[in-house]
Amino acid sequence: MELHDICFYLTDMFEGEKSKAFVHYEPSVLDYTSDAQGVLIVENDRQKISIALKGDEVSVRTLVGVLEETLFNRERVRTLYVWNIKDLVSYFRFYVPNFKIPPVSIVDIKIIEAFLGISKNSPKNYIEAVNRSNILQQSERWLNVYKAIHQPLMLKVLPAIETTPLLDKVRREWVYPYYEIEGQANGRLNASNRFKNGYLPHTMGQAVKEVLQPQEGHRFLSADFKSCEIFVLHWLSKDKELARIIESGLDLHSEIYRVITRDEQINPTKRDKSKIMFLPVMYGCGSEGLARQLALDVNVSKELILRINSTFSGAHDWMMEKQDIAKRNQKIEDYFGRRREFPEQEAYRARNFLVQAVAATFCQEKLIDLHKTYEREFGDDAKIVFSVHDGYGATFIQKAFKDVNRITKQVLETESKICPGLKIPVDIKFGIKLSNMKRIE
Question: Phi and psi (nearest 5°) for 32?
């Protein structure tokens, strides 16, 4: 279809009073790093139009201009029902870096259904999209997170990250990450290698870190929250012993190991054992599993579990209360309303879901805050290039080092807005290579 025909049909579709439309595309991932072409599908209650996405800068810029006057014009369109609009925004942003969708009402059915634990394929047509949206809007439990977290992620933050490449010096190609919002059961972003020229941040070993480079004149920064899930567990359960340890400023894992084992001689090996002991037990690890993890006699692991549960009774009791709810109802909602179902025999899995889901949302809030701050303070001189659960990777120009360090720490360690009272310390490292990052005191 020629451009003037596209313009005519879209103008006709959205003529008169503010309209509604269902927007989706094929294939399921628009790979702007390859020569593959896609199709943008727009339909309302009267018409349907399929628009070829040719994958070159001229045609995409021209199409974006038409869409801004029709589909993305809030004077013409009241509501857009969409299926994973993040990919479409990333696609357009790759060719038109300043592309932004204006503040029309966007209902991303894929993200909302995933948040609510509903697993379905994309709606087949406009009518199904509207009907499924109407069902979702009977409840507003998803609305706060959708507005505060999902919309900034899908319209701004992730498209910016997905179109900011790193150089693979072996392949001699720019490579890009790919993310899916609410892609994991615990609410975390799911990263996958869906692009022809892509890389997978979640599984970067030393070999991959060795070959990835930022653009010329830039350096790497990594920022990771310390003991994120333990801080979230304390925030949720208000456990008094966890509160004492956190407020003391002592090393969290060392002190947990000390109070559990009553061993005053702590070394790095013992500290690491705390990591594979405390949270696994809180999440339901039994004596046999713990014995295998720590290479201990089962009777010793039973004693350790008793000590953990009694020492941190506030956290344990909170966990068991939530597990009982999940067992009784075979489903449960996290602090934000994220819903998951658990068979009765797997009710213990609700424990880690309730903590990890809040931790995931907190980390996404901070990802959004950091992106906004970098954009405002540094422009192109500092950018987030990937996110891995409770950590972030960024690049920056060398002369901005001190400001980037200070602002990153300030943003990430500021109290959460969506989890009032929750603050988590961050560990920041720098380097020319991701394989050799160092902390600078």
Answer: -80, 0
